[in-house]
Design a protein that fits this description.
Elements: H1 2-27, H2 54-67, H3 71-88, H4 95-107, H5 112-119, H6 133-162, H7 165-170
Helix pairs in contact: 4-6, 5-6
Length: 179
């Protein structure tokens, strides 16, 4: 009985000793100036002009052709939306509006067929589809996503009308890039 209490006291003491150091570590470079050198595109296989080389782009497109399904992106986005739901504090009477919002957001992730219609399949002839076929596939994909975007805008409007001002404030997303 005494050992768990002693362990808890030692753990609490260690935690209080470490918290100020963690705050220092997080704030060390908060006011550091942004680097002035140009962005390094070497990890994209950049060529002399700073743009990705054709071979690097070709390798990325091949990866998409063979391995993309959209499931991993949907899974990660669903996890983020679940965390946001908890952070906002969605109540039972707000669940329907929240679910409509999350389904509309997840619907924007392209499925494999839409992606392959735009970039071409792995077994497609290297010369590409018939004349204007790729552009037609892009316009079809954009038409589908226009409808999905309208559904998302409606879901956002419905969700905003259901949330309290405190929840709306908690739902604000910070900018990820300084500048």
């Amino acid at each position: 009985m005494k050992k768990p209490a002693l362990f808890s006291i030692l753990t609490g003491t260690l935690l209080f000793a470490v918290i100020p150091l963690a705050g220092l570590a997080q704030g060390q470079d908060a006011n550091a100036p942004r680097p002035e050198e140009p962005y390094d595109y070497r990890h994209f296989g950049a060529s002399e002009g700073g743009f990705p080389s054709f071979y690097a782009l070709s390798a990325r497109l091949d990866d998409l052709r063979y391995y993309y399904t959209g499931k991993v992106i949907r899974f990660r986005l669903a996890g983020m939306l679940s965390a946001q739901e908890t952070a906002i504090g969605i109540r039972a009477d707000q669940q329907d509006a929240w679910r409509a919002y999350t389904q509309a957001v997840l619907a924007l992730i392209p499925d494999r067929e839409a992606l392959i219609s735009v970039i071409g399949g792995p077994d497609e002839h290297p010369e590409g589809p018939e004349a204007f076929g790729r552009v037609e596939a892009i316009s079809d994909a954009l038409a589908v996503y226009a409808g999905k975007a309208q559904a998302l805008k409606q879901a956002i409007a419905d969700l905003r009308s259901k949330l309290t001002p405190e929840q709306l404030e908690a739902a604000r997303m910070p900018r990820l890039i300084r500048g």
